[in-house]
Each structure stands twice: as structure tokens, then as C-alpha cells.
Design goal:
The chain is of the alpha/beta class. It is built from 12 helices and 11 strands. Strand 1, helix 2 and strand 2 form a beta-alpha-beta unit.
């Protein structure tokens, strides 16, 4: 038989235990308030990033990043905004991540421009840290990580990591992103805002970016558009385009901030509407541009069409293997590829490629054929005037 103190204890235990069920709207403690945000404009200095017909990624990324930071400071004076660079200067990937970690940032936001040998590719995509699940993601992460090779003693500084080796990215599969829910929410919110402004969203993706891997807070990398698409390049370089991109990015960030600081905090991922890539992309972009920009767009398109009759500038090959040491190409399965050749990188890494194609479609056909022969990880690489380019 229980005494009075035991009965009272049981009563309070049962009562407290059913409070959440009776009052499901009890406030949850928000994870944290945003105090410091680090904005990372991609590339800089001797690292141009990707190129369009007339512009460089480093300049567009910096212009948009500065606008995003200005919007944050105007709307939220209490938030400290730190840039990894504010001028055209080179900053190593490790140094960018260290800057965010040393300042105990609550968010790390990378802003970049995209590129693709297929000049019709367009749209936005936002990445969070993770192992790539598609060949296209691998190509993006290799391009963005390749800046590592421009740093002195990069092999020792980055523990032997080779950004050009698909095998090197296995290390990222061991990474467990402690902030994956927050990153998905933020990435989805930003992509939703781009879509609301008429842009085509290519979705939220995962890839192994060194700069995201080394940060200790929620971190994302946003590709705001393709410089290799003549229409999108004009849009990305126009004042109207940059202003719209910055506002879309900022509005997505505001939704994330409200969710993070809300008493009824919830990390339900936002669905990202998708659109079919069709001829309407031209009209979608043109309506955002000024009349002078529209003329420039039309001129650029005309030049792009007329240049198809000129000798090709680019050459495509298919990389089928990579190795720190040379391999014996007389052994199977390599002996069955007669046009296989070694294209060594500056750091001595051996990249084995096949083919010499002036047409991307031909390279894609060869890639498909090689995959059917067991080279499932092969991918297309681009050369200009005999030199490998991003």
C-alpha cells in the first residue's frame, strides 16, 4: 500500500507525462538565433572560375554576394555579415572554411556560377554536403574543387586530396552532415524563391565540396545560373538580373531565419516545383531584362549561331580512369581501348582519356559505349587549344 508522499509523486509524474498530449502547441526551444553569417563569393584573383562568352564567374559571384550581404545588413542590423573576399583576390578553400569556423558563424553561404559544355543548359541548383549521386554532380564538384591545385603545396595542405580523381571523393562518404536538415530547408527555400521569380530550378543536390566539408555550421553552395548559356550569361551580368538573384536568395534566407528562430520551429523540407525545359526560357529571361540588355542578348545569340560554321574551338574526350601511378595499358580491360592515352595533370596524377571529338554528341555516344563495356564512372572532359579546361 502506498503512503501519501508516494501517491503525490505518482500523481505529478502522471500529470506531467500527459501535458504534452493535452497541449501539443507547447513551444519548442528554437535551435539558435542567427548572429553571424559568412558569405563566400566563389573563386577570385588568378582563379577566374568558369567563363562565358564575355564574363567570368569570379566577378558575377562577387557582385551578387555583395548585394546579398547588403540586403541582410539593411534588414537585420544585429546580424554580423562577413565576406571571404570583397575584392578580386584569391582565397584558398581551406582558408574560406577556416574563416567561417574561427568566427563561429551560424551560416556559411557560397555563391557560384555554373558551366556546361552543352550551352543550352540553364537554371539554378543548390548543393549541400554529401556524396554525389549523379555524374553531373561529380563534374560540378570537380570543377569547384579544382581551385585547390592553384595553391602552393596543396598536396600536403589538403592531405593528398586530388580534386580530379573520382576515387578521392570516397572520403566524403564518411562524412555525416550534422546539419543536413537545416541545409535541406535553406536550399529548398532559396530554390523556391528562384522558381517564384520565373527561373528554372534544377533542384537541391548533394556533392562533395571541400569548402562545405570543412565547415562546422550549416553550409550550402548555390549555383545561380550558367555562364555558358548565352541568354543566362546576359541575365547574370545585367543589373536587373543580379538584383533579382540577390533578392531571391535573400528571401529564401529570410524564410530559413524565421523557421530557425520560431518558437514552433519545424524542419519540414520545402518542395521545389520543377518546370520543363522548353523554348519559354527565352521569354522568361527576356522579360526581366532592360531593352538595352535585350538587344545585347539577341546579338549574342546571332553570334553564337553564326559561329557554328567556324572551325571548332573546343575538343571533348572521355576520361575512363585516374591513378596516382602509371598503369600498364597493355593489360585488360585497357588493352581493348586502342585510342586510350595518358593525360598527366600538373601534380603528376595520371588521367587516362580516349577520343578526340569536336562534337559533344559524339563524345556522349562514346561515353555510353564505354559504360556498356564496364567503365561505369567515365565522364566527359573539355579541352581548348589542346589544354584541359573547366
Amino acid at each position: 500500500m502506498m503512503g501519501r508522499p508516494q501517491l503525490l509523486g505518482l500523481f505529478f509524474t502522471l500529470t506531467l507525462g500527459i501535458v504534452p498530449a493535452l497541449h501539443p502547441a507547447v513551444a519548442q526551444t528554437p535551435p539558435h538565433t542567427l548572429h553571424t553569417i559568412v558569405i563566400d563569393p566563389g573563386h577570385g584573383g588568378e582563379d577566374d572560375g568558369c567563363h562565358g562568352v564575355f564574363s567570368k564567374e569570379k566577378n558575377v559571384a562577387l557582385a551578387v554576394s555583395l548585394q546579398v550581404g547588403k540586403l541582410i545588413q539593411q534588414a537585420f542590423p544585429d546580424i554580423k555579415v562577413i565576406y571571404t573576399r570583397t575584392t578580386d583576390q584569391f582565397v584558398g578553400l581551406e582558408d574560406r572554411a577556416k574563416m567561417a569556423n574561427d568566427n563561429k558563424a551560424d551560416l556559411f553561404l557560397c555563391i557560384h556560377c555554373n558551366a556546361n559544355p552543352n550551352t543550352t543548359a540553364y537554371g539554378t541548383e543548390t548543393y549541400l554536403m554529401g556524396l554525389h549521386k549523379a555524374e553531373g554532380n561529380l563534374e560540378v564538384e570537380q570543377r569547384e574543387n579544382s581551385v585547390i591545385t592553384m595553391e602552393k603545396d596543396y598536396a600536403s595542405k589538403y592531405d593528398g586530396f586530388d580534386p580530379n580523381s573520382p576515387e578521392a571523393y570516397i572520403m566524403f562518404s564518411l562524412n555525416q552532415n550534422a546539419h543536413i536538415d537545416e541545409c535541406i530547408y535553406l536550399s529548398s527555400a532559396i530554390e523556391n524563391e528562384f522558381t517564384a521569380d520565373g527561373r528554372f530550378s534544377r533542384g537541391v543536390k548533394q556533392a562533395g565540396f571541400w569548402v562545405l566539408w570543412r565547415t562546422s555550421m550549416p553550409s550550402i553552395l548555390c549555383e545561380i545560373g550558367f555562364l555558358t548559356n548565352p541568354l543566362e550569361e546576359q541575365y547574370l551580368n545585367s543589373a536587373a538580373g543580379q538584383n533579382e538573384i540577390a533578392h531571391s536568395f535573400f528571401h529564401g534566407l529570410c524564410k530559413y531565419k524565421n523557421a530557425m528562430e520560431s518558437e514552433s520551429f519545424s524542419l519540414t523540407a520545402i518542395s521545389v516545383p520543377r518546370k520543363n525545359a522548353d523554348s519559354s526560357v527565352y521569354r522568361q529571361m527576356m522579360k526581366h531584362l532592360t531593352s538595352s540588355d535585350q538587344t545585347a542578348v539577341k546579338d549574342t545569340v546571332k553570334k553564337a549561331v553564326s559561329s557554328t560554321s567556324n572551325p571548332p574551338v573546343y575538343e571533348y574526350k572521355v576520361q575512363i580512369y585516374g591513378s596516382a601511378k602509371p598503369i600498364n595499358m597493355l593489360l585488360k580491360p585497357f588493352s581493348e581501348i586502342p585510342d586510350m592515352e595518358d593525360d598527366p595533370a600538373a601534380n603528376g596524377f595520371h588521367r587516362y582519356v580516349v577520343g578526340h571529338y569536336t562534337s559533344l554528341s559524339e563524345a556522349l555516344q562514346r561515353q555510353s559505349s564505354l559504360k556498356s563495356k564496364g567503365f561505369s564512372d567515365c565522364f566527359i572532359v573539355t579541352y581548348k587549344s589542346g589544354k584541359r579546361v573547366n
